[in-house]
Amino acid sequence: VCLTCCSRDVMVRIDGICHRNGVKFFSGDVFGYHGYMFADLGEHDFVEEKPKVSKVHPGVEDGPDTKKARLDSSETTMVKK
């Protein structure tokens, strides 16, 4: 449910109904340069994009940095949370 241009009492009442029934609720409004947005998503899944960690092969380089894992900015993995 998306709601805008309503009084606070109406928004709280409709959000309560949506929350009890497991329905996602979004509300927002703009007043000139200022505005707000509220979302009650309850239980939900989302995906986060993370850089892939690549392991350095021993013997490729010398020094203390060879044993550290490196972030590969060109590859990413999607993690569901």
Automatic annotation (TrEMBL):
One of its GO terms (molecular function) is ubiquitin-like modifier activating enzyme activity. It comes from the Eukaryota. Residues 54-81 are annotated as: Disordered. Residues 54-73 have a biased composition (Basic and acidic residues). InterPro entries: Ubiquitin-activating_enz (IPR035985). This is SAE1 enzyme. It comes from Centropus unirufus. The gene is Sae1_0.
